[in-house]
Amino acid sequence: MADDRGSPCFEHCIFAIVSSKDLPASRVVEIQQTIEDHAGQVIDIAGDGTLNFDDITHIISTTSDFPQYSAAREHMIAVITPAWIAASLLRNKQAPIRPYTPDPKLFFNQVNVTCADIPTGDKDAIIGAVLAMGGMESSSLTKTTTHICALTMDHPKCQQAIERNLKAKIVLPHWFDDCLKLGKRIDEGPYQLPNPEIFRLNPEDAVPIPATTHIRGATSPHPDTFPIPTDFSSPRQLDVFKDKTIMISADLGIGSRLRKIIEDLIVDGGGQITNSVHNADIYVCHWRSGRDYKFASRAGIDVGNLSWLYHLITHNEWTSPLRRLLHYPLPEDGIPGFKDYRITLSNYGGEARIYLENLVIAAGAEFTKSMKQDNTHLITARKSSEKCTAAEEWNIEMVNHLWIEESYAKCQVQKLTDPRYTHFPPRTNLGEIIGQTQLDADVLKSIYFPEDPTPSPNDPKPVRRPVMHEKDRNTSSLRKSSEHSATSDQDDKDTKDAKEGLEPKPKTAARPKPKPKSAASLDQLSTPVANRRISAGKENATPSSTSSRSAKDKALSKLHGLAPDIALYEKEKKRKGHIWGGERAANKIDREKRSLERSSSPAAKHDIDEDDYSDEDVRTPKRAKTGSSLPPVSIRLLITGYKGWLGNITKEDTEKKKLRELGILVVQDPATCTHLAAPKMVRTQKFLCALATGPTIVSSEFIDACIRDGEVPNVKDFLLKDQENEKKFKLKLQDVISRAKANKRSLLRRVPIYCTAEIPNGPETYKAIVESNGGIFSVYRARGGSTIKPTNPEDDEGPPEPVYLLTGLRPEERRLWPKFNEMAKAGNMIPRIVVHEWLLDVAMSQQLKWSEQYLAQNES
């Protein structure tokens, strides 16, 4: 029979399998048989669902929503989906853990991507992002490939996928970009070739409101009706409360009849009811306040609200009360900062709309069904509706639902400057990703139930739930003293690993972070690895300051503790290619070195724009004595009007790489450039926006000289000289640059500038120029709610200040002029209706000048 068994793929592996609706008992039996046929071992889970982490190496589950998921992470136990078993058998060795984790933060964990006709720099970025977020990449097309990233259908990989009838989806790189900007995985449909919807339809065209399962049963913190499940046969038997003791708080405000029904269901399902929180395993309440709430939370008891209790009864399956925002008790005074907010919604429907209404109220803000000028925020799933248009005109903050969800989860108002909250993919209704945000247990603890420095005799034991156990009992005393700090340190490290794309380390005991205050304290707080080498008789002894241990012995002890990290570092140094966002923990030293180098270079203090061609200087570890390493960036070059790359993408790609090898990074964001290359003084958007930063302006010949000579020439020899245009614009370029440096991008600070929607070249062109110079920009449509806000409200006695309207000469634009005049005068402002030449001249000269020749009526 031994010959009939498969290869020993799972030798030395001990599994526990968590059954669920997605993993029924029949499937569990199949997986167990497969594991045992390949030298693995499966142990049974205890009747109360607890796991002994000393006896297992892997947990198989289709979801992270089971009682001991957090504890498993603390113990560094690998949690994997059943697909990991199949992938390991296919490789005939154990597959990587990360692509098969059910962690919802790794939203690319089921993606296996291969790139087709994508430029090298973009390809590296996409692959790195997929790896960082739990996905996989393959250089060739295989049966396991789920996505092909391509620009057209002409590539052989796309043709092969069609001919072989593979299930791989052929998507534009825009899909990966939008997923990363949101931090969530959205539907690929609008991005699929050969006829992608984002190019075929307009962004403002109707999009169906999607259905979502993430908020089902969690739309209200206090449901009005008792749930009537339809997925249980009669007579009904609950087992989710088996061997559990539940306390139902009086602050729920439910009647005696409903309370009796709930208690009977719990008792009939094998649970018990208690009136003392000291005896409870589950505590159900409405508010995050009171002695019982703090007691239960500190003791590790599951704390949820009535909505969560109904969810357990309805689905007969355990779920964490932290999994859904409205399954956890509410903050009694709301979230700080929301009290003065008036919030309304747009483009959400059904359960999603009810959920957001209740979430806004739970946060402490005022919800309004209609929008008025006194609204402070508009939460919308798309940037297309009458409310969205009005929000832009009335200067009302417009965000997606991630802002309110993460503010509630983190118990503080999140900054609106985070681009995740203001990103709206063109053909996606963001309602499809609603309800995926979870509460942060550490934040709740720090705010609502911090450790009591003076506990009473009636307080519970430090932790009711299982904590980390060492098999080496000789270190128990040391471990108890440092267990709390070790757990919190590991949680922080897990979060950092998820962001950086780090692979989980093999199972090992978490160790407290040493705080070397003295030689004695350093020995006391040494890692468990080092402590195992100390004899049992001296383990708990406090070393004296006159210890005979030499400095060499201390160094060796530290070196032993760092051995795994050093080995991993050496292994990563041999890795070929760039893994953007997926650097391992061993590269921490390199990242710190690069951080110091960047901070010492004034030119490198700006962040690299997402649309820049290349950022190898950030994602490539700097290696000593390696000819292929890239030099630090000394010049951030913005290029405009250059004709050397027109119609030749290959040449552009190659020559940008050559420039990067010389320390020149080609950027697209004018705000980050240190140098600007142009054939002459041109009034392009790039030139005028970059001019506001006061860059060094060179001739386009500078680019040709760098590529031709293979080295960076003296920049002073290539300074732009354009006497013809200086005479035309009546200025000196060097004087303009000096004024720009003095202005510090604030030439138009506090100057309100409006623009008609129909102006030639579009409002976005002028918006970029205005905002680059610190101005206030808005599109003017002459609707009833548009108002002028005085630029100096503290000084009502001062003279009126000007307000500008950029306009063309079309009839539909001229009709707006009288209304703008009325609006400006009503706001105690001087109306100036000007042609776009005024703004171009101001930006080019870096002087806020005025002449009546710019008035649009003169042009008429």
UniProtKB/TrEMBL annotation:
SMART domains on file: BRCT
Instruction: Tell me the InterPro entries matching this sequence.
Output: BRCT_dom (IPR001357), BRCT_dom_sf (IPR036420), CellCycle_DNARepair_Reg (IPR053036)
Positions of region (Disordered): 448-556, 590-628
Compositional bias segments (type: Polar residues): 475-488
Query: Biased composition, Basic and acidic residues: where in the chain?
Result: 493-506
Q: Which residues form the BRCT domain?
A: 5-102, 102-193, 236-326, 338-410, 634-720
Gene Ontology cellular-component terms for this entry are: Cul8-RING ubiquitin ligase complex; nucleus
Q: Which Pfam families match?
A: BRCT (PF00533), PTCB-BRCT (PF12738), RTT107_BRCT_5 (PF16770)
Sorted alphabetically, the Gene Ontology BP terms of this entry are: DNA double-strand break attachment to nuclear envelope; double-strand break repair
Put simply, this protein is called BRCT domain-containing protein
State the organism of origin: Amorphotheca resinae ATCC 22711
